[in-house]
Amino acid sequence: MDLSCTEDEEDFRHRLRAWLAAVLPTLPPRPDPADWPGRRAYDCGWQRMLHDAGYAGLHWPEEAGGQGATPTQHLIFLEETERAGAPYVGANFVGLLHAGPTIAAEGTAAQRARWLPPILRGDEVWCQGFSEPEAGSDLAALRTRAVREGDTYVVSGSKIWTSHAEVADWCELLVRTAPVNQDTPKHRGISWLALPMDAPGVTVRPLRTLAGTAEFAEVFLDEVRVPVSHRVGAENDGWRVTMVTLSFERGTAFVGEVVACRRVLESLARTAKTNGRWDDPVLRRRLGRLAADCAALWRLTQWNVSEAQRTGGVPGVGGSVFKLRFSQVRQELYDAAAEVLGPDALDAEHEWVTGRLSSLSYTIAAGTTQIQRNIVAERILGLPKGR
Questions:
Q1: pTM, whole model, 2 decimals?
Q2: Of 84, 173, 201, 326, which cross-links 224 as Cys (Cβ 3.0–4.6 Å)?
């Protein structure tokens, strides 16, 4: 697919740039990173502004309430919003970047009508209930059970590392709806549910991260009743639906952060030129290699977005290649930042410290590096599966 800009796409860029220049000065101050209710209000307010201006769900299909923009327009949007310093998707990350696209791809017409408009307007926030205690990186080892009673599932179990749970209205929840036995692979018998977070029996316990914020939480489910109509996809077919979710998460959900890494690198180079570190040829080569890595990641992003468009909107396994390398580059970037800043890199008030600490989680989040390597080995290189 040709990703060069047409005249219409360049016009789109100019209109977007003008809109950003007009609205960004009107935004209120950003809340403290630890203030999640405040962050939710801020992020949802920004999403509402995007919606009212016609920029919400830009790359979603029109039948799902999106704008049906071209892949190039989507990339232009990400470039221009990051360049202008616009707010990140924040608390709307799960809803906009993988729960919403999953419902658009796999949900019924009634489910799309119920859940997608509030996501696009910033009215409802979603969290992700995939990971479980003692399951490690083995997502199929989940033990949270959903027992069907007529038109209701009764759900019991617990989740961990649930992003944005304390401010979420809904959770994309994986549950076991059929028992595991020696004749059935454990990834069979899983279903994908939309769980209302205010349902009786749901308890959220925030987890404080190394960066000092409660971005994640433990979620305990004690006989929570969820209507069967909240199941996305067929019963026991949740693993396939989950692969769609993870394809969005790994293939396109981190795209905006590639642009952010390029901005951080440029800032790092400017700092090195002012504090004398630029005179070190080894450091210059290191920054140059990172610039090449960021450029390669952007090209890979373009390829992934293009492939997703060509194959019907669902990203392929190329997302694992991106996720694997992106998580490494992000950590290498902040390692280089520490070298440029010297002792200032240990100043807890410095924004680089927060970036460095959060970068450590990227080799675990959205599937560990080991999982991504397995996917690349088995599904792209065709190597035999490990035992």
A1: 0.81
A2: 201
